[in-house]
Amino acid sequence: MQAPAFKDKKQGVSAKNQVPAQCRPPSDSTQVPCWLYRAILSLYILLALAFVLCIILSAFIMVKNAEMSKELLGFKRELWNVSNSIQACEERQKRGWDSVQQSITMVRSKVDKLETTLAGIKNIDTKVQKILEVLQKMLVLNSSPQVTRPLQPPKVLGFQA
Questions:
Q1: Is the predicted pLDDT of residue 161 greater than 70, yes or no?
Q2: pTM strictly above 0.70
């Protein structure tokens, strides 16, 4: 037995410090193999890395969400300003159309007054012509056989029958 120990001493390694290459065979049949402990430890490490990755992704999502919220608030303000501008423009346009409609109504009433005045003037003109005809007939009946020229109706406000 000394020979193998001597060989180990020559190589600089004692037999007590050596780790066996394989796990010891289980002395009990319910004992778990040692490679299973390493596999479970690896799975725990992977699980911890997955949780860290989830935390990092959640933080990234929260940062992006905050940025998008700021952008949406900016868009909301711009939309509100545009909406107010459009409302003001619509009100100005409505006031403009109201004034145009008032002007149209006023012009129509004045045109109606002018039409009634014109109709009255035409009525007066026809009455004057009838009076002139009556006067002419009376003049012809009352006058001697002299040649008389017919009376011309006067021009009334530029109208002539």
A1: no
A2: no
